[in-house]
Amino acid sequence: MTSLASIDPTGTSIEVFPDGELGVEVGVVRGADVYVVQPTGPPVHERLVELLLLIDAARRSGAARLTAVIPYLGYSRQDRRAAEGSAIGGRVMADAIGAATDRVVIVDLHAPATEAFFATPVEHLDAVPTLIERVRPLVREHVVVAPDLGAVKRAERFAAALGLTVACVRKRRLSGTEVETHGVEGDVRGRPALIVDDMISTGATVAAAAAAVRAAGASPDLVVAATHGIFAPPAVEAMRSAAPRALLVTDTVPAAEASGLATEVVSIAGLLADAIGRMHREEPLGGLVRHG
Ligand code: R5P
């Protein structure tokens, strides 16, 4: 059995040419079981091209098996046509990445069904249990709030594990940076809220949900927990208006520190290492993955 602790990451070099193109090289990987770890958060296109070139370099250098480990998959929210003339970005990314790899690992997809966009097998890792354990000491009388309908299942998982109740904000997205809310389903009066979501991008969703639950009588104390902390502008202003007592995100995207926000970053390095170790040893992933 190979222990991961005994494996050094292979060297990579990424050069940016004067015209903006990237030149990528990897170290010796011939005959190896290769895992390319690369989130594709902002700058999304640069990170995606880096990933595709790293995969190509490893493939051409003789990797025996190639797994792309993508803690955050950019474009995954584009999982259907928003209008007759829209592209489906998530499908395009899945085609490009899946065509070059033997297997893909992704953490907390926006919509689990996106797995089916990939022609190659996908292991959908579950960061929720890790987040729940970090949130547990911070909440007591809280109501777990889904900031929109899409987050209800996640809210129910937090609530079941923490022994709390659930409420849901009625949200409508107006644009990439604007949402409006139409009240809250469930009783939040006099209770502090724990807002949970898969990602914080511009922060509009969390800020609107915070305002909605406070308008519905929730107490000012607020905890926010999300897997992917993208923090695209104007997230800093949005999170300041939400004013959470605690803001937890994982390290699937390395953006929390640069945002300057007082975040608590929950590492999923152990989850990735455990998953990679089990895949390498051909063992089942069991509870590390999420189905449905
Ligand atoms: C939407 O369905 C997602 O689950 C998130 O709520 C959303 O993408 C967050 O984006 P933003 O922070 O820009 O509102």
Strand content: 25-35%
Number of helices: 8
Please report the distance between the alpha carbons of the first and last residues.
Answer: 32 Å
> Would you tell me the overall average pLDDT?
95
Task: Specify the biggest β-sheet.
Answer: 7 strands, mixed
Residue windows where pLDDT falls under 50 for at least 5 positions: none
Report the count of strand segments: 13
Helix content: 25-40%
Radius of gyration: 20 Å
Biggest sheet strand line-up: 9-8-7-10-11-12-13
The 3D shape can be described as globular
Multimeric organization: single chain
Helix/strand/pairing class, anyone? Answer: alpha/beta
The small-molecule ligands in this entry are:
ribose-5-phosphate
Order of helices and strands: EEEHEHEEHEHEEEHEHEHEH
Give a quick rundown of the structure.
The protein has 292 residues and is an alpha/beta fold.
Give me the secondary-structure topology:
Blueprint: E1 12-16, E2 22-26, E3 33-37, H1 44-60, E4 65-70, H2 89-100, E5 103-107, E6 122-125, H3 128-135, E7 143-146, H4 152-162, E8 165-173, E9 179-185, E10 193-200, H5 204-215, E11 222-229, H6 235-242, E12 246-250, H7 256-259, E13 264-266, H8 269-280
Parallel strand pairs: 3-4, 4-5, 5-6, 7-8, 7-10, 10-11, 11-12, 12-13
Antiparallel strand pairs: 1-2, 8-9
Bound molecules: ribose-5-phosphate (R5P).
